[in-house]
Amino acid sequence: MSVGLPKCFSYLQSKGFLSLNSRAVRIKELDTFGIIIKANLKRCLNDYNRLIDKFTVFPVSRVESISNLNNHLLCGKKLDKYAVSFDSSDLVAPISEPNNELSLWSSKSCLKNLIIFCDPNKSLNLFYSFQNERYRWWRKLSGCPSHFHQSQIGKCATTKEENVSIDFKSPLVDDKTLCLETIKYITDRDQIKNSIGVESSSHIIWCKTFPDNATISYLIDGCITDDEGRFKEIWFHESLTPYHVAITIKPSQDSILNSKLVAIADFLIKELKEFGITVFPFKNQNNALDDKSFQWFDQIGIPYSISITEESLRLGVIGLRNKDTKLEEEVHVTRVKINLLLYLKLMKPFDIKLAIMESNKAS
């Protein structure tokens, strides 16, 4: 193990979130769970970009050059209340010191871009409010919001554009800086045309997000240590967690009962997935109900666990366990999805009421 490599990376590798290279001196790539975290984060970014307040957002699947935007959706449109989201590629080093670049992992990364076209009379206020809103958004997904920092607004002397960055710092990586996002405010017409290839009287706010940096940040942010500084488990916001719930079965000596317990598990998996609740891959032999199973689920950041026993066959109830409290409540099989939707905040209250009504009709 390299002396310079943070210990949290070794811990994250042991839990299946990332891989180190053969000499264990730098991050090689994201592993299975890390890939899922990144996909969840990109989905959250896409949802935000698509639903940005008061603006019609046009997604562009992918453009190799920003100037090509004009040929896709913007040609001939009035650009006062429009925004465009798209992906671009760039070479990114997720962790680097300000003056002495220390590349722990570099990849040809896909960056998320959001360009907002706004009224020149309102653009400056929008820039200030937007960058504060983005700062709050990043902190909302964190277990330790103080790890996320917003830079002072800088101003380029030649172009007069203003810019701000949102960064991640943690003592687990010696307070090295990871840039999560940069936000530029551009008012000069010539510069706007040179930047995006579009003639526009509007001002633009250009938000560029680095998903790889953000994924590594939330992996580090989620590492929880005990009083002696040893890593014990990982915490993720419900929007980022690799899986929302894991299912375990207390096996019976009776093979017929076992098959019925597995049938309950299959029913729950199908129902939960229909409501967007992700379930840890279920294998009957590997999901036996014991403390080690719960400990493993806690360590990889799964917030809820379901335990199915013979009581589930007699009374129709399962055990629903919360990772943070370690408490288990008895829930009827028909109510599991409702409780999880409430706890995970995956649906709006009105939608949950409709789901409850449907559940009551079914029972």
TrEMBL record:
Domain of life: Eukaryota
InterPro entries: aa-tRNA-synth_II/BPL/LPL, Anticodon-bd, Anticodon-bd_dom_sf
Residue ranges of every copy of the Anticodon-binding domain listed in the record: 258-335
A Pfam family hit: HGTP_anticodon
Protein name: Anticodon-binding domain-containing protein
Taxonomic classification: Eukaryota, Metazoa, Ecdysozoa, Arthropoda, Chelicerata
